[in-house]
Amino acid sequence: MKKLNKTTLYIALGTLVIGVLLGALFFGGNNKSSQDTTAQEAEQTIWTCTMHPQIRKTEPGLCPICGMELVPLNTDGADVGPSEVRMTPTAMQLANVQTSVVKRQKPVKEIRMNGKVKPDERKLFSQVSHIPGRLEQLLVDFTGEYVSSGQTVAYIYSPELVTAQDELLEAYKIKETQPELYNAAREKLKNWKLSEKQIDNIISTGKLQERFPVIADKSGIVSNKKVNTGDYVTRGQALFEIANLNTVWIMFDVYEQDLTWVNKGDVVKFTVQSLPGRVFKSKVDFIDPVIDPARRVASARVQVSNQSNQLKPEMFATGVIETPLKKQNEALVIPKSAVMWTGERSIVYVQEPSAGSGRNFMLREVVLGPMLGDSYVVKEGLEEGEEIVTNGTFSVDAAAQLAGKPSMMNPEGGAMSMGHNHGDMNNNATEDVGRKNINDLEQATIYQLVQQYELLKDALVDDDFNKSKQLAKSFYKAMKQTDMSNFSGAEHIIWMQHSSNALNALEQMKEAKNIGEIRRYLKPLSGQIITIARHFAPFKKSLYVMRCPMADKNKGADWISFEGEVKNPYYGAEMLTCGSVIDTIQ
Asked: Alpha-carbon dihedral of residues 482, 483, 489, 490, nearest 10 degrees?
């Protein structure tokens, strides 16, 4: 029995040894291979900074330069041309990049105009006194009161009228013998606007009337009260100005360069700020033949029925006229959002053929024709059927800059202004750049800076040089102290690029010797702030993008404002209302 147990034990130990050897033989090699592969993959994963791609790390972390989170660098062989930037579907979705096909259509020029509600000049009246004397009582004693034709508006004591009544009574006694004298006495009272009934009443009672009523000749609103109780007035002197507002005029400002597009009979659709959601429609019935020499505008008049009195004088109105372009049946038309400007160049991003799920985009310079409101006619640079980026253009451009490809600020491609090589940037890095996932901190930071810009702009509107210079200094300091680590991804790129250019303009402003020098750098500053605001919108309030066609030696210049009323910072009081709203950042 003991011998059997020892034999069984030897067999069990032998089986265990053989099992271990077989396990090592069949599984040991694969395990080593798997470990080697994992190690190799770990070694192949390089972590880089989207803003500073010269940084290369073998493990994740933060960029030692800007503090941004490092992203994995993937060097797969995507089919990307030397001048193309590639974006993955995820990157496009996060950045809200949208494309559309270029098509031909009937070009319609859209003219936007600003104007004010004015009384119809043909229905303005002066209520005069036909009797000289002292105002004993005013029955209409405040501006804005409604007056009806035939209503008594005042009582007047007139010594001359008392004398004329006495002459009438004496002439009446000798009426039979001297009828001419009697008729002359009656006519004298009628010339003072006394009625036949009033004259007959004086004769029948035989009493002299000392206080005579002033009767309203027309109906309307008292727009100006010119006298008070106790005043002495002469015959023909105006007591009130009365405006009939049953119909009103809308006087629109048409800039010199837009006059060729506006004609008598054109339909105008307009809105009034105080009546949101209400759209009015009428036709141009008069165009001023003389241009205002200061504001360089002519007035286009529109007449509107106002039976409900909702339209009140001095209300602001915004109108639009749509005019088909002459001699152009069809043209290539693209949305304004597709176009980016840099100096004299206009560029778009065209989608190129690509393999896989991602999309390739290439920068293309175009020659633009007339602006049609929210779109442009394209003269050169695009063909019908090509697909272009119409939303998220700046995100695509930021990705191109990061990848060292031709972009808006660097048309030749290569390293960005920071001097780094981006030639090996990958899809993952591009995906990170393409994101537009704006957080509250980023948005709050930009909103505060836009408010600083608004203060500077308002100081220029008021022609206040000292205040403008001080605000330029504080604005410069605020931008300089903004922590760039507050921004990530595409927002970091947008901030780095445009804040640098804005700082250059503010640097010149704070060293300016006069207000003219400050205004000289307002255009480049406004361009950068508008671009930043568009990218980081929406904000708590809408921003209105305005343009003055006279600024920068008639080249035109833009600015933004929280208010829709045009107040020109490029000219101040000299041409305060020169400009128009060309866009709204909701």
From this structure: 10
What's the CA gap between 540 and 30, in Å, rounded? 61
Which residue, among 433, 496, 442, 438, has the nearest Cα to 71 in the 3D structure? 433
pLDDT band at 39 (very low <50, low <70, confident <90, very high): very low
Question: How far is C-alpha 383 from the chain's CA centre?
Answer: 31
Report d(CA 301, CA 312) in Å as an integer. 16
DSSP state of 550: T
Average pLDDT over residues 204-210: 83
Among 97, 77, 125, 19, which Cα is nearest to 389's?
97
Mean pLDDT of 140-154: 90
- Residues 199, 205, 210, 215: what is their CA dihedral angle, to the nearest 10 degrees? -40
**Rounded Cα–Cα distance for residues 561 and 234 (Å):** 51
β-bridge partners, 364: 348
pLDDT reported for residue 41:
46
pLDDT tens per residue across span 558-585: 999 988 888 999 998 888 888 888 888 8
Q: What is the dihedral of CA 65, 71, 77, 82, to 10 degrees?
A: -40
Report phi then psi at 189, rounded to 5.
-70, -35
CA distance 177 to 276: 74
Nearest 5°: phi and psi at 422?
A: -115, 10
Backbone angles phi, psi at 521, to 5 degrees: -100, 5
pTM value is: 0.54
DSSP string over 120-155: -GGGEEEEE-SS-EEEEEES--STT-EE-TT-EEEE
